Fold each of these.
Amino acid sequence: MNIYVILKQTFDTEEKIAIQEGVISDDGVKFIINPYDEYAVEEALHLKEQHGGSVTVLSIGPNRTTEALRTALAMGADEAVLISDDQISSGDEFSVSKVLAAYLDKQSFDLILGGNFSIDSGGGQVAIRLSQLLNIPHVASIIKLDVSGDQAFVHRDSEGDIETLMVTLPALFTAQQGLNEPRYPSLPGIMKAKKKPFHQLTLDDVGLTESEISAKTERLSLFLPPTRKSGQILQGELNDQAAELVQLLQHSDVKAI
Amino acid sequence: MSKTYVVVAEVRDSKLRQVTLEALNSVALAQEDDDLLAVILMGHQLAAITEQLSQYVAGQIHVIDHIDLGTYNSETYFAAIKDVLDSLNPHVVFLGHTASGRDLAPMIAAYLNAGQLSDVIAIEKADAEVLYTRPLYAGKAFEQKKFIESPQVVTIRPNNIAAATANPSNPQAEVITTDYAPPASLRSIVKDVIRKTSGKVDLTEAKIVVSGGRGVKSSDGFKPLQELAEVLNGAVGASRGACDAGYCDYALQIGQTGKVVTPEIYIACGISGAIQHLAGMSQSRIIIAINKDPEAPIFKLADYGIVGDLFVVVPLLTEEFKKALA
Ligand SMILES: Cc1cc2nc3c(=O)[nH]c(=O)nc-3n(C[C@H](O)[C@H](O)[C@H](O)COP(=O)(O)OP(=O)(O)OC[C@H]3O[C@@H](n4cnc5c(N)ncnc54)[C@H](O)[C@@H]3O)c2cc1C
């Protein structure tokens, strides 16, 4: 079974956000594999252990993305592909999905796995757009995946309800929390990763030009949320505090009470 | 020239979702006077919902009613909507940023070769431009964006944009029923839907959220929180700490890698206030923290804090609310 995992490198979830000269500063920021994409990597490795085949991790991003791909190789992926090009960096989800589709269209695969969304830009578009561009079925936000022959049996988390589906491969799935528990790279894994194939490509290599992928949306401004004014710790006996809180809420301007 | 604005309506548990009314109002915020509003309603047994929608819509309602559309499936829903979109040639398509909206929107965007802005929380017009505000890093930052060209696809986050109000004296909406021809062969088939949420207040649409963390200590520990939520007609949420410990389902998780909620009142019980949790709830209107540790970081963010044992405080609150709301 040939599996591709599309992944993105994101800020660590612990990071605070600072804006410098109109952009989000990445000074001293720790980067990780987008947590949902990490579930996708784990699931791919698990399927390979059951069914054989190969796992290729694929990413678009700046050079630092190499680190995220190396981590995935150390976890057990077989090959990595990084498409890195300044001409893509001004793009949006439309652009990124076009580039991925141009590359994957020329590969043979049974499964494509990705994350439910990326925790930085939170668009949740790229993987689903990709399935459309490749004309393969997809199921988003899965929490269980079993493959048998050319059929996949999946559970999809739909805002708390669970939908069970049968899907004919090749297909694309996006991972939701609960799908698995990602493994840590082992020391031998880290050593082996250094010798695994790592391909670095440009936009030209996938046969696209900048004008074919130019963004459809444009950012006008970036800002931090207003800081909340510090609140009030209630005092006194607990039953009096509870009564006071209800009073305060009833006299506030919220309509819910 | 007049343009067409499309809203893809959403039905859950046989009810029209609140976010659809918010999407209708989004059109009002974005459009010009002579633009056309067309709502697309897909599902099964839609007569009552069509009737309800017609009180909000001065324009067209395209109804695609078929037994195969009774439950959401990306393939059947997309097959159903494709031809209607072709005939409407939309300028913008609005959907809710919900399980089905999040799934359908990128399919539509890819099909229309369109840009998409996801999870929009505010829409405003400046001169001739429509500006969309959306969160980055789960609300640790925000960006304002615009489209460079049309067509456009937008998903809006529930509970952030005001809902359209009914106008029974509206010019009657034009209801257009469209046939659905099931695709010759389906590549994905929904076998079953296990409902875990029906009858409960939707977490992302709730006006009040009562959340439990590791301090709740067990799945039974969630009971007092459920009672409080019930009295307030709110929903129960959780921290990842509580989910990881197996006290509740991951579907309840709020935070950077869970759901993002913006209720009017958020009550955090036994939650320390880790940065990943704050990312999912810090935009709530009023935040209340109940924690026995006065140093817990959640108190830095809370509008009101009670330092104490949640198993004492939460039932006291439930009683007080019962009295006040009686
Ligand atoms: C990649 C990544 C993603 C993450 N995503 C999320 C996310 O989306 N959402 C999220 O919530 N977390 C997330 N986390 C986890 C986060 O870092 C915290 O570990 C988690 O939020 C802690 O949960 P908690 O506050 O319930 O538990 P704790 O931090 O253990 O806090 C429990 C609190 O309960 C209080 N308490 C105990 N008993 C009582 C009592 N009887 N009465 C009153 N108070 C009591 C304690 O004083 C303490 O403050 C993520 C972490 C990582 C690494």
Amino acid sequence: MSDKTMTAEEAVGRLESGMTLGIGGWGSRRKPMALVRALLRSEITDLTVVSYGGPDVGMLAAAGRIRKLVAAFATLDSIPLEPHYRAAREAGAFELTEVDEAMFMWGLHAAANRLPFLPVRAGIGSDVMRVNPGLRTVTSPYEDGETFVAMPALRLDAAFVHVNRADRLGNGQYLGPDPYFDDLFCEAADTAYVSCERVVDTAELTKEAPPQSLLIKRHVVTGVVEAPNGAHFTSCAPDYDRDEAFQKVYATTPWPEFAARYLGGDEQAYRSAVREGA
Amino acid sequence: MSGVTRAEYCVVACAEAWRDGGEILASPMGLIPSLGARLAKRTFAPDLLLTDGEALLVGLDGTPEGWLPYRQHLTLVTSGRRHVMMGASQIDRYGNQNISCIGDWAQPKRQLLGVRGAPVNTLNNPTSYWVPRHSRRVFVEKVDMVCGVGYDRAAEHPGTARFHRIPCVVSDLGVFDFAGPDRTMRLASLHPGVTVGQVEEATGFDLAVPDEVPYTREPTAEELRLIREVIDPAGARGREVQG
């Protein structure tokens, strides 16, 4: 069986401009930030980003890497509005497909199940239909005859997710309270890159945690990236909480200044800069 | 009862939203609705399910009693066994709600949160709203982006919207329902100390106002004790609603 470990740079090196990229986590929680930072160091652009948006979206939008965003929101959780996302939206910097949280989930489920769409009782009556004129509805073929939104599959060229532990083969484990939709992102993607706090032997995975914490299965994983503190500054429970102080720095520093100070070098340089800033 | 603050009337009014809810999830968004949900569970609605704000269902003392990660939360929404009280950046007379953006959606003047789960919420489980500062900027003639579906739009989709229901809107000035003509917003009660004129002044559309407007009910002595000594001893409620 193949060893899938690689660096964040190697993972990003397999991406191309113009791709559709799904990013796991939720808001400012367990975001694959080390992978996002590596992406920001690359020349890759013109992305369609699919995300339950947090600072991943804010950073990629601020850096001008997003052509189109598929999202239901962008938030930093403890700071409700994502400032860099806001600025980019208010500048009309990218195209937006704004769908409801449940529609988004069913789009991932459809992609993971190789279905063109799944019906969902959401969106109808709201302006989600107005701002997404391409959305179609479907009528139940049964007696009820009800009409639903036919949420199209959100098939991804690539997915980035971050988990607590993984083995070299690509089995990913979450130890926090919520899996979010990370397994679905991987299943909906042609290639998936899983960063983790620590790469461990397969046998280690179930030593102290039950098998149901094994969220991501290796057959849907292309690359495993060991990235300690790789969700920083978002939370990665139980390994660490959100770095609220640093998040505040992120939210209140003008983007060019933040990027120059924290994202000019590699991941090691990022960590040093964060330490110096503290 | 003397000395009851406006914030305490708001807590009681929010709590009332979950009366007779049965064994459903109370999803309060914002501080005062959260206090209200806990007050309801401690008193007249003991069967309510509450979350820790993350992935656990918890009792009043924080004891976990269930697991509710986001994906299961969305299933619970579509099962209808939940009553959410959401915020609203804008709301109109039919209860159409906006939390997405202000201005033209294509290039908004102010980008807000996004539609979040408002579309799925309003078609599947009862959805009430909490507005801590009642103003013409929030209570508008027409919202810029319909996230939560109002009664007029629900009526256009009777099949899909058969579970649509907006029980109430609670603001710092009063409680509102949709018993006005054509299911439009109606002043259901005024918080003591507020006048009809004040509410009309702060509302950007014609509000249905009955001839006799009751006041929001007084908290019982026990409810007041619970709010002040058990549920919010630090008095956070007074920072969300003054007076």
